[in-house]
């Protein structure tokens, strides 16, 4: 990728792609964990993994956004908006498994 | 500096389409876009008449205009046609028509693909429509849920019409999305960097991305469903390891993005014409772009909110409910930005702006009821009632019909060179606006009072009479409004006052000359602003005098610049094809193929498949050898650019990756089906007694790897100017490819019969899917081989080889996922 493509990619596509990856990971993981009965273990494996994943991905999105937001002009501002939106979105996707009883 | 005399005539000549009936071979974007829009309105009219029929039947209790069977067909066809044949295509048509003009391009980068997309859409739509004529229209609702739509309960041909007609239209949509994506990324006028790109282009880019990822799940679902109906492969049959809920997932993986696929381009149109009539640049431009991207992605993660009442796990309920509420944020930003643009500007309340305000009011009301039904407890009450009918029409008519009508009025002068009448426009608007609310507002009440949707009549005395009667009266008013509005436009096209250039004082490039000449721009301008006509003084004069890129057609060629994705730096020169019958003929052959499948005349289908193969090869065969093309052409005085054809960074290269993304979504849907059934279906894991790995299945991996290596060695050979090596290695690749396919076929015979269990059926679909892709790669490589033997290709011009290599590798990678699913999974199932 050329330099402008790389920064446009980081600003506009990286946050949503991270969100999508996290969404899929959580959805697939929770489904499988329920299928295989991991939620009945002593330690709350499901919650711990989901919380860990969520914190990691939100941090990654915010980090990417910080780099983006320093860029001047259009990419900086638009990318900043995209980053904030998807940091929030990632958080919201990670919350339900922590708040609601899993596997029911 | 003045341009040579006669250059303009030569340009007109180069871009002209043939007269009379031979105009059907035209591939220019404006005739194509106009055909899309007109055809979409044709289907809209029929679907609208069906709606009036529904409202007539429901006007009073115990009515007998339509019996239950007819009613089922009518509402199913109304919904299906409105969504698949009107709402999406009309916007694709608008984009086909407007985007090149807005982007400062002379045409779309793949005119023949655009034409092919149109003909597929037309034929698919006609196939679907013909079912209504013969009285066998689909009758299981616009999302045709099994088991109702399965062979047991829908033995007739009705559902097959849906599956085939809709799939055809979806293929048209994907082809169009590839075209539009590459167009937006690679054919913007020099200098039109992403930050200066018009909002409509941003919205279409997001939409095209959603189509590329969102349509494949439904295409896959329809293929599986047709296999089940025609050959008894039990994907949705619970007694043999299938699950009807799998269809719901595949459908809504498509269906929810679909709602935004309709909404986003409409908002893009608004965001482009509202600033013109508000005389103020779009407020919060950057936020609008961010919202388009945000909505595009978020809408992919909400599909299951249509399935709250199915009984999916509580966890999933919370998950999808949370995600659903999120999408309100970007939607809210967009509505706010539009209102603020009007509020901060000096608005002139002409018809388009009225429709924009109509959009705001109606769409916001629909959004409010949307938030209500996205809450699980409320949805369990409102689900499948008339409340949902009210909600979805507020969203769809507010979010699509009103913006489209406003856009028609706004761009009518650009399309016809004549001004539409403000009087009929405004009368039409108020009838539509008031009629719409009289029609659909009462249905909220009817629904909460308990009236289900999709019932052909109802008894008196339940308190549903007045609201139904009112709704029916409103629908007549709405229809009258449409008649006046569209009649006014049609009248204006012939009798309207002639316009001068840029009648509304707009800022974007489509208004440089009104109406624009066939070649769009006398010379392609250099862009320095988001609203070039507002900010770049002298731009119009310069363009009209041929100052800019490619004023000279250089011997009657259709030249246009191709630029880089982000900064729009001119990179090469496109040399676009002129009129050709290939797209029409190919689409017609596909229609024959699909009709053969529909009526189960498999001899016809096979003949159609062979003919389609030939047609595609003929189409793809180049008219001139890449080797003989001039390396460079003069793009502007003193600036030489390489010719795009055969160049390794040509837009076709971008198109390859875009296509692979859509194809990967198709394959991912197949893998999803596998894991979904594994996880949730009854009768899983399948009763496998003894798992064995057949030796042909394992041995086949060897020639597969060898063929990929050979393909890459072929490419390396031509990079070193070794054409003989290219031929040799391509032949090796083809040979090993054939060996692989034979072994695969052999291994497949050891698999269980597909009708035994959903897993067996999926295993067969998986290997056939991969084999089909390898066949496509082999066709590409075979054509490259033939061309190489005729002396084509050079070290810097062998794009066809590069594409074949990449596609071949992709086909092999499919088997990295496919092999374990088909041959290793049984080991996990042994009991
Ligand atoms: C001319 C104005 C329209 C009227 C009077 C109208 C009327 C209706 C009615 C009464 C139903 C409910 C049938 C039932 O459940 O028994 C319905 C369903 C539906 N309408 Fe419309 N409609 C109109 C325009 C549209 C438009 C413009 C669209 C989409 C762009 C649309 C999409 C749908 C869909 C998807 C359904 C659901 C069909 C199903 O249940 O399978 N309608 N319409
Ligand atoms: Cu939805």
UniProtKB/TrEMBL annotation, chain A:
The keyword Transmembrane helix applies. It comes from the Bacteria. Keywords: Membrane, Transmembrane, Transmembrane helix. The chain crosses the membrane at residues 12-39, 45-69, 81-100. This is Uncharacterized protein. It comes from Falsiroseomonas algicola. The lineage of its organism: Bacteria, Pseudomonadati, Pseudomonadota, Alphaproteobacteria, Acetobacterales.
């Amino acid at each position: 990728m050329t330099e402008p493509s790389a920064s446009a990619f980081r600003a506009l596509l990286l946050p949503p792609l991270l969100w999508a990856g996290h969404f899929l990971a959580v959805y697939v993981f929770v489904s499988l964990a329920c299928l295989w009965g991991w939620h009945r273990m002593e330690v709350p494996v499901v919650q711990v993994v989901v919380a860990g994943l969520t914190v990691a991905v939100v941090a990654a999105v915010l980090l990417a956004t910080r780099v983006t937001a320093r860029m001047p002009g259009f990419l900086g501002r638009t990318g900043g908006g995209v980053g904030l939106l998807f940091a929030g979105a990632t958080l919201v996707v990670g919350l339900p498994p922590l708040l609601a009883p899993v596997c029911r | 500096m003045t341009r040579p005399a006669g250059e303009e005539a030569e340009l007109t000549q180069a871009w002209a389409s043939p007269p009379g009936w031979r105009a059907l071979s035209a591939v220019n974007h404006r005739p194509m876009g106009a055909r899309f829009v007109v055809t979409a309105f044709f289907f809209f009219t029929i679907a609208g008449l069906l709606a009036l029929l529904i409202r007539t039947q429901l006007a009073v209790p115990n009515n007998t205009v339509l019996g239950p069977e007819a009613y089922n067909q009518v509402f199913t066809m109304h919904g299906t046609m409105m969504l698949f044949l009107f709402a999406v295509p009309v916007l694709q048509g608008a984009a086909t028509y407007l985007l090149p003009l807005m982007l400062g391009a002379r045409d779309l980068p793949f005119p023949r693909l655009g034409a092919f997309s149109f003909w597929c859409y037309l034929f698919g739509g006609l196939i679907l429509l013909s079912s209504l004529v013969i009285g066998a229209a689909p009758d299981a609702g616009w999302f045709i849920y099994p088991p109702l739509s399965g062979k047991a309960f829908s033995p007739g041909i009705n559902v097959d019409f849906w599956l085939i007609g809709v799939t055809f239209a979806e293929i048209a949509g994907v082809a169009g999305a590839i075209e539009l994506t590459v167009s937006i990324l690679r054919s913007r006028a020099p200098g039109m960097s992403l930050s200066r790109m018009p909002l409509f282009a941003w919205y279409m880019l997001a939409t095209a991305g959603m189509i590329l990822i969102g349509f494949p799940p439904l295409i896959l679902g329809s293929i599986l469903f047709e296999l089940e109906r025609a050959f008894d492969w039990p994907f949705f049959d619970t007694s043999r390891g299938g699950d009807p809920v799998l269809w719901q997932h595949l459908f809504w993986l498509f269906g929810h993005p679909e709602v935004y696929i309709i909404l986003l381009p409409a908002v893009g149109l608004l965001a482009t014409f509202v600033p013109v009539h508000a005389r103020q640049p779009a407020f919060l431009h950057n936020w609008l772009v961010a919202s388009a991207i945000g909505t595009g992605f978020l809408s992919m993660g909400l599909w299951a909110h249509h399935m709250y009442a199915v009984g999916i796990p509580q966890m999933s309920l919370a998950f999808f409910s949370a995600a659903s509420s999120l999408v309100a944020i970007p939607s809210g930003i967009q509505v706010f930005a539009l209102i603020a643009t009007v509020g901060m500007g000096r608005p002139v309340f002409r018809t388009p702006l009225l429709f924009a305000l109509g959009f705001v009011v109606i769409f916001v009301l629909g959004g409010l009821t949307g938030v209500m039904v996205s809450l699980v407890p409320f949805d369990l009450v409102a689900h499948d009632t008339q409340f949902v009918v009210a909600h979805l029409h507020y969203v769809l008519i507010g979010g699509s019909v009103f913006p489209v009508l406003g856009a028609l009025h706004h761009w009518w002068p650009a399309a016809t060179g004549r001004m539409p009448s403000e009087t009929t426009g405004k009368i039409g608007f108020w009838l539509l606006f008031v009629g719409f609310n009289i029609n659909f507002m009462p249905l909220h009440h009817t629904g909460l009072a308990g009236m289900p949707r999709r019932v052909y009549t109802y008894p008196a005395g339940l308190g549903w009479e007045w609201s139904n009667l009112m709704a029916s009266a409103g629908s007549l008013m709405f229809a009258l409004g449409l008649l006046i509005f569209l009649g006014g436009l049609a009248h204006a096209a012939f009798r309207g006052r002639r316009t001068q250039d840029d009648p509304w004082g707009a800022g974007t490039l489509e208004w440089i000359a009104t109406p624009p000449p066939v070649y769009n721009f006398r010379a392609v301008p250099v862009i320095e602003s988001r609203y070039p006509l507002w900010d770049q003084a002298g731009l119009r004069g310069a363009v009209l005098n041929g100052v800019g890129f490619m004023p000279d057609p250089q011997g009657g060629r259709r030249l246009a610049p191709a630029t880089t994705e982000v900064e729009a730096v001119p990179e090469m020169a496109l040399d676009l094809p002129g009129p050709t019958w290939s797209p029409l003929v190919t689409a017609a052959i596909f229609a024959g193929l699909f009709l053969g499948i529909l009526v189960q005349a498999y001899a016809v289908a096979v003949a159609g498949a062979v003919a389609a193969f030939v047609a595609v090869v003929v189409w793809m065969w180049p008219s001139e050898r890449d080797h003989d093309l001039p390396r460079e052409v003069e793009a502007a005085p003193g600036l030489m650019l390489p010719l795009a054809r055969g160049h390794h960074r040509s837009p076709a290269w971008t198109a390859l990756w875009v296509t692979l993304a859509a194809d990967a979504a198709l394959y991912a849907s197949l893998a999803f089906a596998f894991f979904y059934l594994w996880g949730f279906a009854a009768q899983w894991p399948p009763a496998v007694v003894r798992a064995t790995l057949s030796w042909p299945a394992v041995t086949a991996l060897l020639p597969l790897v060898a063929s990929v290596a050979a393909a890459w060695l072929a490419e390396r050979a031509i990079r070193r100017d070794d054409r003989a090596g290219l031929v040799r290695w391509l032949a090796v690749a083809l040979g090993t490819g054939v060996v692989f396919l034979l072994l695969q076929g052999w291994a497949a015979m050891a698999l269980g019969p597909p009708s035994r269990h959903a897993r067996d059926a999926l295993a067969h679909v998986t290997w056939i899917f991969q084999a089909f892709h390898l066949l496509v790669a082999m066709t590409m490589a075979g054509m490259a081989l033939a061309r190489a033997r005729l002396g084509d290709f050079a070290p810097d011009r062998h794009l066809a080889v590069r594409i074949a290599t990449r596609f071949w590798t992709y086909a092999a990678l499919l088997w990295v996922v496919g092999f374990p699913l088909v041959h290793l999974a049984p080991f996990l199932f042994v009991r």
